[in-house]
Structures are given as structure tokens and as C-alpha cells.
Amino acid sequence: MRQFDFGIFKRICLGACLMVGTFGGTTASAQEFGKNILTGGPNGTYIQIGRDLAEVADACGLTYAIQESAGSLENFLGVRRRSNTQFGIVQSDVLEYLKTYASDDPNIARAIFGVRIAFPLYNEEVHILARRDIASLAGLNGKRVAVGVEDSGTFLTSSLVLDLAGVKPSERVTINATDSMERLLAGDIDAMFYVAGAPTKLFQSDQIDAAQFHLLPIDDPTLSSVYVPTSIAAGTYPFQSDAIDVVAVKAVLMTYDYNAKKNEYHRLSCKAVSDMSNLILTNFRQLQEVGHPKWKSVDLNDIPPGWDIGECVNAGLADSYQMQCASPAPMAADESLESQANEAYRARICAAIGC
After folding, report:
1. CATH number of the domain located at residue range(s) 33-122+251-353 in this protein
2. Are the beta carbons of 131 and 189 closer than 8 angstroms?
3. What are the start and end residues of each CATH 3.40.190.10 domain in the chain?
4. How far is CA 342 from CA 80, 123, 170, 278, 284, in A?
5. Are strands 36-38 and 144-146 parallel, antiparallel or unpaired?
6. Residue 68, CB-side half-sphere exposure with 13 Å CA sphere
């Protein structure tokens, strides 16, 4: 197996991780307090998932503001660094990359301290839209490839994919997805990466000519061992007539391990996490029926290994948790051998929606 230079992630994270503050000591009055979810760009799946959550909360009389961002790394660090930011949608491989450095870099260890998962979400497909004359991943050798901005999950994953596959573009262009699309259509670059749950709005444009562009298959055995092999069904996008084998990474709704006894800010933030957790559970079927299509593939029991569910999440899933607009279902027993936090989470999920 080819070795990947994780130093690229360390360089990206270093400046941002140094800025991670101790917002856990922040105090906030009820008047100052806000509830925010960091998502992604305007055309991505993250922001649509965030809007679904905000609508569920709004029906309960609660306001969670949806914030655009560059993507996973900004969201990860934002939950740690920004006040009034209780949630961020993050690719699970971003968590793993940062955790790799925690043992020998105190700045990164500080950045991931207290990070928890609220809910596992869906698999995000790795889209590579390329000129029609480029037939495979190897065909990107010597080409100009857009890989996302440096604080995005697309950048992290595309860098890993290219390095593990041994592909060396002539230029890795660090621009966002919208600019990548514009430059690809204009002929200024040869291909673009975009990591997002299919169908993503960006690729549903009728400007993408099937005679000139297509999605590249990703069938490298090394990548299949690192990521989840999957496919994008035929007809998912207007220009795509055949199913395409690709790989995917799981998205998660992440939060922080707030301590309700620490101060008023922590208490209010913990309640915000608990409220949203309860709303997701009690409205899960509705989200699957009327939310973004990716909700249909969400497995709430598929917790990425090595990461724990937050205590404030489990508080919101408990039998005793009371919300004016929701009535929690009774909890069933669970005998799985794992952390107490994850065990309590699974028990509540199974009781409410089955396993």
C-alpha cells in the first residue's frame, strides 16, 4: 500500500489549531446566547441537511441559525473555537486525520479535546468531474485539477485520494466548488473534486455537457481499502447515463462535550444540543420523507470507530427529557460492549426507530 504524507494536514491545521481558544470558559447571558450549525457552501449537501434541521427546530419554536462555511475542517475547528456554535457537519476522515497527530502535537491535541459526535449521518460520495477525454483517475497525471479550498473536507480527501493512488497532477488548484465548476466549464482546468452527498445541487446544472464532461470512476484497490466503495446511480445527474463506481466518506454531525455544571454558557449550549438531539430522533421519519434524499440512507447506529457520543446528546434522548413539542418513546435495553455513552445512544435509537 502506498504511504500518504499526513504532513499536509498538519500544515493546514497548524495555524488554525493554534487559534483554538478555551471558549469553554465563556459565559453568556440568555440575551447574548445563540444556537448555530456550521454547514458548507450554498450548493452543497451540508447546507441542505442543516436547513432540514433548522426547519424541524422552527416547528418546535426554536431557532438554530445555519451558517455557510468552506467545509469540514472549518466546521471542526469552528465548533471548538467559536462561541454560540454547538454543531458542525464534518467528514469522519477529517476527525481521523487530526487524531493521528494528537499524540505528538499539543496544538492538535488541544483542538480535538472534547470533540464528540451528535449523530452519524450519510456517506458522501467523492465526485471527480473531468473532461471526457480523461478516462480514469490515472488520467489526471499531469493535468490541472481543482481540489477544494484548504480548509475544506474536499481538499483533505482529494489530497489523500491523489496521493494514495499515486496520481500527480501538474497543478492542484485550491478553489471552492463554485469556482471550480466555472473554470472547468471554461476550459481553464481539466477536472475537479467535490466531496458531497449525491445528488448534490452543484452537478444538477444543465450547463454540464455530457459530450464534454463525465464523472470519473474510482476503483483503485488502495482507495477501496481506505474508503467505502459505493456507486452513483445512473441518472443521478442530467449528464450521467450510467452508474459510476466511486468511494465515499461518512459525514457526521459533531458537537462539543459541554458540562452543564460548569457555567451558564455550557448549560445553555448543552440544552441546545439536547433539544436538537431530541428533535432529530422524534422527527427522524419526517426528515427521511421530506428532507434531502440523503436522509434515507442515514443509519443512526453507524457510529464511526474511536469517537464517542456527547453526554448532552444522550441527555436529549433520555426517557425523562421533556420538550413541549416532542414526547420521547421508551428506551429499550442494549447489551453491546462499548462505551457507556455509545451504549445509551444506541438503546435510544433502537427504541425509537428500530435497529
Report:
1. 3.40.190.10
2. no
3. 33-122+251-353, 124-250
4. 21, 20, 45, 16, 19
5. unpaired
6. 5
CA-closest candidate to residue 152, choices 41, 226, 262: 41
Neighbours of 340 (CB within 10 A): 11
List the beta bridge partners of residue 191: 130, 145
Average pLDDT value for the chain: 86
Q: Within 13 Å, how many C-alpha atoms sit on residue 266's CB side? A: 15
Burial class (CB in 10 A: 0-12, 13-18, 19+), 322: exposed
Cα–Cα distance list, 337 to 267, 294, 332, 346 (Å): 30, 29, 15, 11
pLDDT in tens, 196-244: 989 998 999 899 999 999 999 999 988 888 888 999 999 999 999 999 9
Alpha carbons 62 and 169: distance in angstroms, whole number: 47
DSSP state at residue 19: T
Peptide bond into 330 cis (omega under 30): no
Best CA proximity match to 68, nearest among 172, 195, 176: 176
Residue 26's pLDDT is what? 45
The C-alpha angle 158, 159, 160, rounded to 5 degrees, equals: 90
What single-letter DSSP state applies at residue 248? Answer: E
Q: How far apart are CA 281 and CA 296, in angstroms?
A: 14
pLDDT band at 101 (very low <50, low <70, confident <90, very high): low
- DSSP-derived secondary structure letter, 23: G
Q: All 3 cell numbers of residue 83? A: 462561541
Q: Please give the Cα distance from 176 to 70 (Å, whole number).
A: 8
- Over range 242-265, report the average pLDDT: 94
The fold for domain 124-250 equals: D-Maltodextrin-Binding Protein; domain 2 (3.40.190)
Angle at 187 between CA 46 and CA 143, to 5 degrees: 85
Residue 306 predicted with pLDDT over 80: no
Local structure of residue 253 (DSSP, 8 states): E
